[in-house]
Amino acid sequence: MAYGNKAAARSQRFDNGFGASYEGIFVVAGARTPLGRINGALGRVNCTSMGRIVGSAALERARIDRAVIDQLIFANAHPSSVDALFLPRHVALGCQLRPETPALLVQRICGSGVQVLATAADEIAAGRARAVLAGGADSTTLTPTVSFGGRMGYDFGQSPGFKDLYLEALTDSYIGSPLGITAENLAVQYKLTREQVDQFAYESHTSARRAVDAGIFADEIVSVVADKQVRLNIKEKEFSQDETPRATTSLEALSKLRPAFKEDGVQTAGNSCALADGAAALVIAGGEEISRQNLPVLGRIVSVGVCGVEASVMGIGPVPASEIALSMAGLKVEDIGRWEINEAFGAQVLACQKALGIEREKLNVNGGAIAFGHPLAATGSRLAITVLHELARSRQRYGIASACIGGGQGIAMVLEAVS
Fold it and tell me: Distance (Å, rounded) from C-alpha 89 to C-alpha 30?
């Protein structure tokens, strides 16, 4: 593959969203933290610190001159520290980028980690950057309990009304519905049974555990080491392996869990995404810069699709988003060797699989968010790193990283392995 081609993009509007295809834009390298369970190893590490850790690791793996990183584009959904407004800028400075390097915060909820890659590609194609450091970080543990309106005061005896910001965000206030009910709606629409959803969750856990034990993710992960700035929530001084996948999950145990959202529903705590903390970052560069510096290449950004769907079935978002991305790439579903669709809910992923006609052996082959967890703004970038490494391992050419998005959106990115 020739890397020296000038970066370019072609965009198109669709009735249900938009898409773009790219030439000459590559993923140089990527890194992610191990994923920590809620109140787990990363429970005391804020998003800025996680962003600095993965960003620095991605830059080191890329062997790139940091002077040509012309922008940092980072995502965060929930604030985890009082200085969260400064997160992208502080990540940039913490990664020792030039003080002149602008930094941007992106928020497309669960799709943010893919959106940062698309935005990076757009900036490179437009000539506004030679290379970009992009990624996302989120901490479920440190998401705050908040009270709105306190500045205006409250009457004697009146409660200040503290709320769990993360818990409240699991309900779409516009339609007055928990996000889990949107998965239940898809279960009804696609005639999915509790047994099928539990089976999918079981496979996610067992595949994840097998992959972790086999060291499949070793090339993705950068260890988080305790120091003056980073305080781990474990006795050990280093956190280097995903702690969320369960070794003891069984179909019998999953079947005994009560439905979480409606009395006769299919979704439980066991077949929905785990709550997690984590971060991921990638170095994106134009082909000309890769040739000039003789940089390593992990893969190529081929296309992206972003769509809107009815909020009541928000989990189906990866379907039209993938269709747009495939259309922009001139590809079909059967051309995709590996799919990484975020497992917000088991029924949601099964509905997407059914609607798109994805072969099971190509989908989330090393487990997904049901096992690993879903740190919102980090997930998309994590999926991109995972699918690119899996494409190389399995000697497949094309992969898709995709996520549904609360409120009724979807995003999907086609990535190409580079031999």
Answer: 19
What pairs with residue 37 in β-bridges? 276
319-323-328 Cα angle (round to 5): 150
Multiple choice CATH, 8-142+275-417, 3.30.830.10, 3.30.300.30, 3.40.47.10, 3.40.640.10: 3.40.47.10
How many CA atoms lie less than 13 Å away from 99 in the CB half-sphere? 0
Residue 349 Cα to chain centre, angstroms: 15
Task: Answer yes or no: pTM beyond 0.90.
Answer: yes
Q: Where are the domains of the chain?
A: 8-142+275-417
What is the predicted pLDDT for the residue at 407? 97
73: left (phi over 0), alpha (psi -120 to 50) or beta: beta
Going by their DSSP bridges, the two strands 25-32 and 299-308 should be labelled as: antiparallel
End-to-end CA distance of the chain: 8
The one catalytic residue in 47, 95, 110, 352 is 110
Could you give the CA distance from residue 413 to residue 29 in angstroms, rounded to a whole number? 17
pLDDT in tens, 241-261: 999 898 788 999 999 999 999
Phi, psi of 58 (to 5 degrees): -60, -40
C-alpha distances in Å from residue 150, one per residue of 69, 153, 154, 158: 41, 5, 7, 11
Concatenating the DSSP letter of every residue in 10-57 gives EEEEETTEEEEEEESEEEEEEEEPPPEETTSTTTT--HHHHHHHHHHH
How big is the chain by its Cα radius of gyration, in Å? 20
Cβ(176)–Cβ(228) below 8 Å: no
The token duo for 348 is 């949601």
Q: Token pair for residue 176?
A: 């007055």
Low-confidence ranges of the chain (pLDDT < 70): 1-2
Distance CA 204, CA 225 (A): 28
47 catalytic? Reply is no
Judge contact between 142 and 375, C-beta under 8 A: no
Annotation marks residue 307 as catalytic: no
The residue annotated as part of the active site, out of 273, 307, 352, 404, is 404
Q: Which two tokens stand for residue 143?
A: 């998401």
